[in-house]
């Protein structure tokens, strides 16, 4: 039985965060609000849970699941190295609507899909998401929708698509941006914007000091 917790009510928020943390630690799925769109998430290091996440969305491993973190410092333990350009973008836009693709640390035992040794990381600007992430650690999180359908901007929209496949829904109100994050790939010799979204390309270029190329 799925439960939706209204995080605008303090008691419900506390109960919901506790239920969500318990679900993540036991390998189950949760829906959580972010500053962009609602996400469906699980423990990033639980391969079975990640597989269930992809099944709930009706998607295969060819599109790897991004990872959300609750602090800047978490990144250092997840990637091979944090380039100077990545640190500049983190300082400028985290928490916020910018995702970074980096080479992940080879020692990590996770299976996020066909990542080719990379991971997409983001720190969301939403108090409910941050509180959960700081409690349970990095989470594999994808947009809360069935593959091919629009991302959910409310907990109810997420439930309408995912239903009982998810045990805990955290209702943090309507997503402020209702647009996906901007993605910057830093795994090559030069940064490349894979998708322009919540953070404008012009702002990314301004921080890096040059016009960033957009993937074609």
TrEMBL record:
GO BP: any one term: regulation of translational fidelity
Domain YrdC-like: 14-199
UniProt entry tagged with the keyword Nucleotidyltransferase: yes
GO cellular component, one term: cytoplasm
NADP found in the keyword field: no
Annotated InterPro entries: DHBP_synth_RibB-like_a/b_dom, Sua5-like_dom, TC-AMP_synthase_SUA5
Gene Ontology molecular function terms on file: ATP binding; double-stranded RNA binding; L-threonylcarbamoyladenylate synthase; tRNA binding
Protein origin, superkingdom: Bacteria
EC id: 2.7.7.87
Catalytic activity: L-threonine + hydrogencarbonate + ATP = L-threonylcarbamoyladenylate + diphosphate + H2O
Compartments (UniProt record): Cytoplasm
EC top class, as a word: transferase
Entry keyword set: ATP-binding, Cytoplasm, Nucleotide-binding, Nucleotidyltransferase, Transferase, tRNA processing
Family named by the database record: Belongs to the SUA5 family.
Protein name: L-threonylcarbamoyladenylate synthase
Organism, scientific name: Saccharothrix syringae (Nocardiopsis syringae)
């Amino acid at each position: 039985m799925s439960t939706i917790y209204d995080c605008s009510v303090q008691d419900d928020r506390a109960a919901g965060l506790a239920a969500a943390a318990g679900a993540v630690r036991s390998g189950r799925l949760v829906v959580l609000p972010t500053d962009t769109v609602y996400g469906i998430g699980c423990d990033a290091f639980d391969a079975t849970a990640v597989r269930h996440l992809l099944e709930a969305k009706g998607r295969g491993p060819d599109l790897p699941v991004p990872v959300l973190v609750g602090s800047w410092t978490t990144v250092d333990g997840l990637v091979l190295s944090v380039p100077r350009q990545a640190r500049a973008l983190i300082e400028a836009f985290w928490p916020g609507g910018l995702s970074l693709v980096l080479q992940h640390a080879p020692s990590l035992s996770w299976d996020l899909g066909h990542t080719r040794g990379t991971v997409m990381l983001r720190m969301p600007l939403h108090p409910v998401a941050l509180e959960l992430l700081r409690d349970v650690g990095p989470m594999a999180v994808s947009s809360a929708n069935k593959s091919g359908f629009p991302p959910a901007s409310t907990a109810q929209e997420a439930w309408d698509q995912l239903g009982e496949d998810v045990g805990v829904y955290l209702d943090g109100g309507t997503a402020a941006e209702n647009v996906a994050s901007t993605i910057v790939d830093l795994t090559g010799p030069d940064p490349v914007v894979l998708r322009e979204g919540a953070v404008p390309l012009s702002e990314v270029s301004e921080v890096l000091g040059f016009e960033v190329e957009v993937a074609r």
